[in-house]
């Protein structure tokens, strides 16, 4: 039996946004909030924290990524503990990476009965929208009764960042991280070319020119999804520009000129900087900085990099740090470094806990038990180690305080793990030999200079501009992607003129006006 569906107007936006991202990468609304707020709790008793656990609860938890070969074995150990402690078992379902843009929005739009999921302001349908549309359970009052330890574990300021209209709809991560975009490159090649570091676009161009002249592979060898990374480079390296809400950050989105001027937003497409960037992207494409088949390629830049078929890849900092072990295994003796686009202009943004949250579906039949499970994973180290690290002695061992793979470990037969970022807690994190050791010192430096996101806690309601947003997404999925990869059929300046005209017809001005209208009374939560 299907549960509550999200508003059909939102579904239209989600599906078109998902279609865009997929391309780049290869109800009743009036009653919905009431439904989330008044979800019937499980019967109270004198069992676990006042919750009746006499009846077994079988929960479904959706995570991103694919299932590791030993995930079922790890989950069996988790379920042994859950069954004994709170009479609950967990089934984990997966949304594989290429399917996130389409299947994640459908998870909520379809009315499927499930219990737990990852959520984020940067997801294909963002956390604040899910909360506003009544797709999530309001856990504000439930926390004291069901998960007091969890509530105490997370600072009040972090809880504050999760609130939508004064209510809490998700449990935020307690993991310190930064995720600015950038370019991972090979240090051995850098030294070969007589260079010390890439710290600017000019440095990056010098490195890429040398790669084209001296190597059998290109500087970047990815697919259409790299268009968004090129746009991020433009925003991050231009003045004090910051991303603004209104249009998905998985496409060419809106921006503001500075954190102080956050209530005024604009489309970068209408700036001279954007036109100049489009010209530059054509120059880079013509130079061979990426493959001629970039729009149709199915292999990502990291895969090509590890196959020694490129000199670098575009990603965000946390991903590069986490890829350290895999990169070293694939390319023995090769060290990498990272050019962070936003660093020179001092625009590294702090990640707030809400950026990775665990949420409970409004269609869950066991919301209280679901919250108890989250509490176990985030406050009990034995649960934490299982969901984050696997089974000790099989997926990992501890040596001198460092997590390593056991002797004889074979990823194809012994590998396992879950993309449960939302459940991370700094106090349980241990050093690992697969993560770049520079992480702690790098983040310590950024802690000193990082800025707050001025839109933290803002929820954009697209109801008045759903048609326009869908039309803009369609324009971005075609001409926008082509512009950012230098692959337009026309001269880039003429293509930019066409792009601007298409955005006008799609309703970009109406969307900007709606965003600014909603921002008028907004005060950042920082």
TrEMBL record:
Keywords: Signal
Pfam families the UniProt entry points to: DUF3502
Chain ranges of the DUF3502 domain: 454-523
Signal sequence, renumbered to the chain: 1-22
Compositionally biased residues, Low complexity: 27-40
InterPro entries: Bact_solute-bd_prot1 (IPR050490), DUF3502 (IPR022627)
Region Disordered: start-end pairs: 27-51
SUPFAM superfamilies the record matches: Periplasmic binding protein-like II (SSF53850)
Superkingdom of the organism of origin: Bacteria
Keyword Signal: yes
PROSITE patterns: PROKAR_LIPOPROTEIN
Bias type Polar residues, positions: 41-51
UniProt-recorded name of the protein: DUF3502 domain-containing protein
Organism listed in the record: Paenibacillus odorifer
């Amino acid at each position: 039996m299907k549960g509550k569906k999200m508003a059909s107007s939102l579904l239209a936006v989600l599906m078109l946004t998902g279609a865009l991202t997929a391309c780049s990468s290869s109800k009743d609304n009036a009653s919905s909030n009431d439904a989330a707020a008044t979800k019937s709790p499980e019967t109270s008793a004198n069992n676990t924290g006042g919750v009746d656990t006499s009846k077994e609860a079988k929960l479904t938890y959706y995570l991103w990524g694919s299932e590791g070969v030993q995930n079922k074995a790890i989950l069996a150990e988790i379920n042994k503990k859950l069954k004994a402690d709170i009479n609950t078992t967990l089934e984990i379902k997966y949304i594989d990476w290429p399917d996130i843009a389409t299947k994640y929005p459908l998870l909520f739009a379809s009315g499927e009965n499930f219990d737990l999921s990852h959520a984020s302001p940067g997801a294909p349908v963002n956390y604040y929208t899910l909360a506003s549309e009544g797709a999530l359970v309001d856990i504000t009052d439930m926390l004291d009764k069901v998960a007091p330890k969890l509530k105490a574990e997370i600072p009040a300021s972090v809880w504050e960042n999760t609130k939508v209209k004064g209510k809490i709809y998700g449990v935020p991560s307690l993991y310190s991280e930064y995720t600015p975009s950038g370019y991972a490159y090979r240090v051995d090649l850098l030294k070969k070319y007589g260079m010390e570091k890439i710290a600017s676009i000019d440095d990056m161009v010098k490195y890429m020119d040398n790669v084209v002249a001296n190597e059998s592979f290109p500087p970047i060898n990815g697919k259409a999804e790299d268009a968004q990374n090129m746009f991020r480079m433009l925003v991050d390296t231009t003045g004090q520009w910051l991303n603004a809400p209104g249009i998905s950050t998985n496409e060419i989105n809106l921006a503001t000129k500075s954190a102080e001027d956050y209530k005024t937003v604009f489309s970068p497409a209408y700036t001279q900087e954007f036109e100049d960037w489009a010209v530059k992207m054509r120059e880079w494409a013509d130079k061979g900085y990426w493959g001629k088949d970039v729009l149709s390629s199915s292999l990502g830049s990291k895969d090509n990099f590890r196959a020694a078929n490129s000199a670098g890849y575009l990603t965000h900092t946390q991903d590069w740090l986490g890829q350290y072990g895999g990169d070293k295994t694939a390319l023995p003796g090769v060290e990498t470094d990272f050019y962070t686009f936003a660093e020179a202009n001092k625009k590294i943004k702090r990640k707030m806990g809400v950026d990775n949250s665990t949420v409970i579906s409004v269609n869950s039949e066991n919301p209280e038990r679901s919250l108890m499970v989250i509490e176990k994973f985030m406050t009990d180290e034995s649960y934490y180690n299982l969901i984050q690290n696997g089974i000790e002695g099989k997926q990992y061992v501890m040596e001198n305080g460092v997590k390593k793979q056991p002797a004889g470990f074979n990823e194809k037969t012994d590998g396992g793990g879950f993309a449960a970022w939302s459940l991370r807690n700094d106090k349980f994190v241990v050093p690992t030999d697969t993560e770049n050791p520079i992480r702690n010192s790098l983040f310590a430096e950024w802690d000193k200079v990082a800025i707050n996101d001025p839109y933290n806690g803002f929820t954009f309601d697209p109801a008045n501009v759903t048609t326009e947003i869908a039309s803009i997404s369609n324009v971005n999925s075609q001409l926008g992607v082509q512009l950012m990869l230098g692959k337009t059929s026309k001269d880039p300046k003429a293509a930019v003129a066409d792009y601007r005209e298409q955005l006008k017809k799609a309703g970009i001005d109406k969307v900007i006006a709606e965003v600014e209208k909603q921002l008028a009374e907004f005060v950042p939560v920082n």
